[in-house]
Amino acid sequence: MKSINSKEDFLEHLSSLISELENNPEAWVNKSLPEYLESLKNWVDDMDGYYINNNYNIPENINWRVFADMLTAAKMYE
Known about the structure:
Structural class: mainly alpha
Distance between the termini: 30 Å
C-alpha cells in the first residue's frame, strides 16, 4: 500500500484514480457515482476486516468530519 502522508500525496492519489477511470474504465466495477458512493459506504462499514485480513494496523483517530466535509463540498465545488 502506498504511503499517503500529506495533502499532496492525497491529491496525487486522487489524480491517479481519475486517470485510471478515464483511461482504463474496464478495471473499475463501480463506474457510476451512485455505485461508487454505495461501495464506499459499504467498504467503510467493513474496513476493519480489510486491515485485519491484510495484516495492517487498523487506523485510529480518523477525522471523519474532514471526510464528510470533502464529500459534501464536492457536490457543488468546481
